Amino acid sequence: MHDSLTLVVILLTTAVCAVVVFRRLHLPPILAYLGAGVLAGPGGFGWVGDTAGMQHLAEFGIVFLLFSLGLEFSIPRLLALRRVVFGAGPLQVLLTALPIIGLLWWLAPTPAVALIGGAAFALSSTAMVIRDLITRGAVNTGYGRAATGVLLFQDLAAVIMLVLLPVLADPGAGNPLATAAATLGKAVVLFAGIYVIGKWVLPRALEETGRARSDEVFVMTALLLALLAAWVTHALGLSMALGAFLAGMMLGESHFRHQIEADIRPFRDLLLGLFFMGVGMLVSPALFLDYWPWILVGASLLLVLKMAVVTGVLRLLGERRETALRSGILLAQGGEFGFVLVALAVTHGLVSNEQAGVLVSITVLTMAVTPALLEHSGGLTRRLLRQWEQEPDTPAVDEATTGHVLLCGYGRVGQNLMRYLHRFHHQAVAIDTDLVRIQEASQAGEHILYGDATRKEILERAGIHRASLLVVTFDDPRQAERILHTAHQLCPDLRVLVRTRDDAHLDELLAAGAAEVVPEVLEASLMLVAHALMMLETPFGKVLAMLRQSRRERYKLLRGYYHGESLPTADRAGNPYRLLHAVTVHGQAAAIGKRLGDLELAGGKVEVQSLRREDRTLPHPDGDTVLLDGDILILYGALEAVEAAEEQLLGG
């Protein structure tokens, strides 16, 4: 008992530490569990010598994984994406699996290893890809729908593979094709039975459970349903995972779906963590050292093969080049169901631990690079398309076009600006790098060019020498600075209007030559202030004068704010945020009796927005102001500079 408790504590400690480290590295928790398993297994520190017992326990993780998948596996969603699901899906699985099976059959000692490897490598990571699409809000984009459709078929194929796995494990059961057909027949009959039960019996049973108004009873009912369905299919000689999947799919159509999913998630995540740790125990560091050239080559070939197959299949179905290629990049990795297949193959004696270790190592390596592929899939897609294709044949601006507005970026802001320019009879030309957007806008009659607006030749092709105004419509301060530099090299007198999100880069952009900078957040605040004042019956003339003065002073009154506890130290590009911070000068503070102009706070990097003295507030005090005991200074600047200025004021 004591040894078992010690083992559990060691495993949980290893898993928790691994997940925390991998989260900091922006890597998925699956890899953390696999790494923890490698450390704890026979090939690592040897804390777990016999992995068979843990594998049996971890099978329940597969049951709950398939049950959760069934809850998400909506039949209406399947039908909505049927062209991709039943068109691209089967082709992708076959065209990926067959060459891998052929290669492994030539290399592997048994056909079973080739079949298991081909089936496992044909599947991608649903968890990683779908989570990334949801995070980016890209589920309903062209490439998001295409990737989701292929993943739906892969999940369905994984269930069929799990059903047929016992047929491979029992070669003495007669004709394999007949056995497989009988197994699938039993699965269809089981599907019909569970459909009837799930449609009319289970919802009523759950309603009765819900009337008990007991969370414990509802949780136990959800667990019972998943395990009971798994027990029924196991008793019929089928995979436990199949029963759990079918039960989840039937309940996924009911209004209990979200509550059940929330209730079983802790059990599923814990058992799945144990399962992936068990898979990691199949990998030995010594094995990786022995086979690392094969593992690296295998992972590279798998990434290239799956990207090419997915891209080609989607192009065959008529998807756009960018959609097909980006979907191929998203689905290039191996997936968690590959681990499930390999682990069950080891349990059934189809694959040795050494062979499983190589297969798992290849999959892990592809999944390790997946976060980077997901993050840069858009840029990588555009880069590859520029190399493989000619740029869109968009004519350059002709000599007759003069006085037009040049828009750098044709996203939502650029398109809105274009509409209003047309309404007021101004000509406009846009530059963008999104091929799909260019094709659609060109068909609608818009004048839009393909290219990078930081390049001289692209700006010249857009007629910058004859333009009356250049507008940077996207929120990327670094790109905007490069455009400003290039534009002023070509046309020093051209006015440039730049859009930014906030005031973090306002001074730098103005210094780079922007005629005006429009910070979205500050403009939204200004509009809110104006509406509030007008609703308070402030004369319109005074409101208009306030707006003009605020913009003339470069939003001086609006710049900076008190961040509170959730203080972000830097933006997405790593540039420091600027904030307001109040410092009280009292007691033995070093700044008392000194002029503000003599202090040069933080080397001039901090601005004094206002000075509070007794009941008076002095906005933007000048350098001759002498600080007195009790003065409160409102400082504005980057966090580190403000902290240095506070130390200078108080400590000298």
TrEMBL record:
It is a multi-pass membrane protein. It comes from the Bacteria. Gene3D superfamilies: 1.20.1530.20, NAD(P)-binding Rossmann-like Domain (3.40.50.720), Regulator of K+ conductance, C-terminal domain (3.30.70.1450). The chain crosses the membrane at residues 6-23, 30-48, 54-73, 85-107, 113-134, 146-165, 177-197, 217-234, 270-288, 294-317, 329-350, 356-374. Keywords: Antiport, Ion transport, Membrane, Potassium, Potassium transport, Transmembrane, Transmembrane helix, Transport. InterPro entries: Cation/H_exchanger_TM, Na+/solute_symporter_sf, NAD(P)-bd_dom_sf, RCK_C, RCK_C_sf, RCK_N. It is found in: Membrane. Its main location: membrane. Residues 402-519 form the RCK N-terminal domain. Residues 567-651 form the RCK C-terminal domain. This is Potassium:proton antiporter.
